[in-house]
Amino acid sequence: MKPTDPHVTWIDDKPLGLMEKLYLPLFMQGLSTTARHMISPKVTVHFPEERPTVGNPLIYRGVHRLNRDDDGRVKCVACFLCATACPAHCIDIVAAESPWSDREKYPESFSIDELRCIFCGMCEEACPVDAIELTSLLDLTGKSREEMIFDKEKLLSVYDMTKDSEPMKSASLGGTL
Amino acid sequence: MLIPSITTLAALIKIGLLVGGLMTAAAYFVLLERWIAAWVQDRRGPNRVGIPLTNIRLFGLGQPFADGLKIILKEDFTPRHVDRVLYTAAPLLILAASLAIFAAIPFGSVLPPLGIPGLPDPISLLVAPSLDVGVLWVFALSSIAVYGVLLGGWASNNKYGFLGGLRSSAQLVAYEIPLGLGLLGVVLSSGSLKLDVIIHAQATTGIWNVVAQPLGFLVFVIASFAEAARLPFDLPEAEQELVGGYHTEYSGIRLLLFLVAEFLHMITASFLIVILFFGGWHLWGVTGAGSEITWIGAIVRFGIFSLKVFSVIVFFMLVRWSWPRFRFDQLMNLAWKVMLPLGLANLVVIATIEEFRPQLTGSLGEPFVSLVTLGAPWATFFLCWITAGLLSSSKPDNRPILTAGPLDIEQELVRGRR
Question: B407 φ, ψ to 5°?
């Protein structure tokens, strides 16, 4: 659209008042705002010693975990919905026939490349059995690329580590299983 | 072998103290600047670096050493397309000029008599105490510092560096005039170009020039912000527009020289503001005004002087986070259409007062004279301030109307419709 288009409505700013024209009063106002912020409480934390507070851990999108069911088995049924939904293609699943009678398949291997992941949470939304979830762990570090590819064991251990502080979302958020 | 005389030796000691103190101060003011920047933005600022190899942090007071070490150890790269001689000379010139300014700037009052033979007592805390043209020296050298900026921008052979140098030259030429006008009023009323005499005149009367010449103070402070190229007038190195301005092509220790010189400019401006308008080392009822003092008195005067300079520097840093940068035409408008007339008005009023002060004291009483000599500048201050405000445009959008190019014609048409 060109600026000369008759459909363009041009809105003028308010004309300056006396205080704005006199300049210094508004300058003092700005300076007092600056000075107030200088002594106001800080919003940042001393990171490694102090941890930032996560508002609601249940909806935070941090490191993934693979949930276990009541018998301690992996809940995942290797349906590939998460790998299909993943926009970053970071989930790699090898499916095998399940050794248990209540499901047909289970993941023989399940790995997530955390360096590729964009933490969008689509895997969590796609999962029909609430097996994959995002925790509130936010400092994800490693010394090599290989270390950052989380395999099934590691993802299950993330669940073991966080299951007490963060319950499975199925119950609290109206899950399916 | 050449044996330095005792006076030379004394001057060398003063120079050593001053240069050492200034370099340390510049390093720590960088830390202070980062702290204030952080605090204003509700952050905590650099607070990690303390004593190396220990866990002692000291609120981050080791940061300047880390910063200095880092920038010194970095590669000092010279691009192939620069003018080598000027490229090397520019940072040296700017640093030498901004350090040499302090030869004429007192950093305290006087020391009590030491009784060293061959050394005139009392010893003035000023590197060149017999320099009669102190103010002129300061102004001449701060103009030479502009050459450093210009040469740096020109020799870099880089469009951003060149633009920074151009902006800097126009800005400094424009603001040296209001700076000089603000200063002239002070020189007129104290009758000397020596900065220690100017302090002494304020201490004797007990009336600081900020009270006696408010308009001159306003003009001088705004112009010294522009001279020090601090926000809101930091156009020569506006990093959002010009990468780094005149020091875009510099790296390593030569960049450090530029940055230190920039901080020294701010420190110089703060010293000048304190000396010319806030009475230097003088504080009512604490320091006295005479030149016979004890050691405690000398230390107290030095402390008060430093405290005042420190406060002005903190003000400089707070202003940086309170005001957005001016556009270049706004900068020029402010210099030529506002600051210059205000400075002239101040000068006329002060000159008139100084001319007729003896006659007034003769014909009227002393209280009436002080009423006039303080009332007239304040009346001028408010009158000029309100006039300048009322004369400025009420349109918030004061962009100049462009006249060339097809797109600009469209813009003009739009503006015609509005």
Answer: -65, -35
- Residue of B337, B369, B332 whose CA lies nearest to B353: B369
Residue B123 counted as domain residue: yes
Does residue B111 carry a pLDDT above 80? no
**Cβ-Cβ contacts under 8 Å for B57 (sequence gap 6 or more):** B47, B48, B49, B50
A1 touches chain B (CB under 8 A): no
Strand partners, A134: A64
B160 vs B249: CA distance, rounded Å: 9
DSSP three-state, residue A110? strand
Choose among B40, B321, B392: nearest Cβ to A21.
B392
Question: What's residue B8's pLDDT?
Answer: 80
Residue B166, pLDDT > 60, answer yes
CA B330/CA A68 separation, integer angstroms: 66
Once rounded to an integer, what is the mean pLDDT over residues B93-112? Answer: 83
Measured in angstroms, the CA of A169 and the nearest CA of chain B are apart by 34
Domains located in chain A, CATH noted: 64-167 (3.30.70.3270)
When scoring B36, B40, B337, B390 by the number of chain A Cβ atoms within 10 A, the one with the most, hence best to mutate, is B40
The verdict on B395 touching A (C-beta cutoff 8 Å) is yes
Alpha helix locations (H) across B156-244?
Answer: 159-190, 195-205, 209-212, 214-227, 239-242
Say what the pTM is.
0.81
pLDDT of residue A14: 81
Q: Which residues of A touch B390 (CB under 8 A)?
A: 18, 21
Mean pLDDT of B335-356: 88
Determine the straight-line distance between the first and last CA of chain A, rounded to whole angstroms. 53
Q: Which one-letter DSSP state was computed for residue B110?
A: B
pLDDT band at B418 (very low <50, low <70, confident <90, very high): very low
Burial of B205 (0-12, 13-18, 19+ CB in 10 A): middle
Residues 6+ apart with CB under 8 A from B340: B177, B178, B181
Report the C-alpha gap between B198 and B192 in whole angstroms: 7
Local structure of residue A119 (DSSP, 8 states): -
* DSSP letter (8 states) at residue B104: G
Overall average pLDDT of the B196-218 stretch: 86
The reply to whether residue B394 touches residue A16, judged by beta carbons under 8 angstroms, is yes
B42/A42 Cβ within 8 A: yes
Residue B301 inside a domain? The answer is yes
Residue type, B261: A
Beta strands A105-113 and A91-97 are antiparallel
Which residue range(s) make up the domain with B109?
Answer: 74-341
Whether residue B364 lies within 8 A of chain A, CB to CB, comes out as no
Cα B172 from Cα B168, distance rounded (Å): 6
Q: How many domains would you assign to chain B? A: 1
Among residues B229, B246, B265, which one has the least CA distance to residue B98?
B265
Residue B283 lies in a domain: yes
3-class SS of residue B381: helix
Whether B398 maps to a domain, the answer reads no
